[in-house]
Structure formats: C-alpha cells, structure tokens
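Example 115, ligand adenosine-5'-triphosphate.
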Amino acid sequence: MIKKFEAALAGLLYTLRTQVNMAIHLGAAVAVFLLGYYFQLEGWEWGVLILTVTLVLAAETFNTALELAVNLSCPHYHPLAQKAKDVAAGAVLVTALGAVIAGILIFLPKFLRAF
Ligand SMILES: Nc1ncnc2c1ncn2[C@@H]1O[C@H](COP(=O)(O)OP(=O)(O)OP(=O)(O)O)[C@@H](O)[C@H]1O
C-alpha cells in the first residue's frame, strides 16, 4: 500500500519537475488561494475553487502520462500520435477554461465592490 502511494507521489513529482505548464497551473492556484484569503471567501466558494484547481492539476497529470505512453508506443512522427497528444492537451484546456470562468464568477463581483 505504502509502495503504491510512493509510486503515485513519484509520478506527481515527475510531472512537477518536467512540465512547465504544471508549474504555471500551480502558480495560478497559489495566487487564486491568496486572493481567496484576502477576500475571505465563503465555504462554497472555496469548495468550487479547490475543485476546479484539482481538476486542472489532475488533467495536466493525465496529459503527462498520455504523452509518455504515446512517446513509448510511437517515438516517430505519426498523425495518430499527434491527434492523441492534441486531444489530451484539449482536455487540459477545457479544465483551465472552466477554472478561469469559475474564478471570474467568484472574484469579479468582489473586485467591483472593493475598487
Ligand atoms: N509522435 C508524434 N507524431 C506526431 N506529432 C507529434 C508527435 N509527438 C508530438 N507531436 C505534436 O507535437 C506537439 C507537442 O508534443 P510534445 O510531446 O512536445 O507535447 P507537449 O505538450 O509540448 O509536452 P511537453 O510539455 O512534455 O514538451 C503535440 O501536441 C503534437 O501535436
């Protein structure tokens, strides 16, 4: 059980070390959480933010796994390999757009009231 947890952690650390996008997502998440602390968000607003951030990070991690699997099975150029990677990247984009929309819906009214 502990071995499986260590393997999962190693996979996560690999993603953090190798994927620039993961660092960008994490940076954005920290900024959003600090903003949430500043505006003293309500419980449900924290819930929405944490869910959307988790979705983006999980999607990026799946995307990394898929890239590795495609590189392993098809190290040369192939239109299907391209499609597979592009579709996985599209999934990350969908979650990131959802997170941006959720962030706007939560923070925009607070910004308008504050400034
Ligand atoms: N084997 C391949 N055959 C055809 N096109 C590929 C192949 N590998 C990658 N591509 C194309 O190049 C793009 C970038 O691929 P790459 O593997 O560098 O992904 P990436 O999202 O930039 O990942 P990383 O952040 O790890 O560099 C893919 O989205 C795909 O369109």
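Summary: The chain has four helices and no strands.
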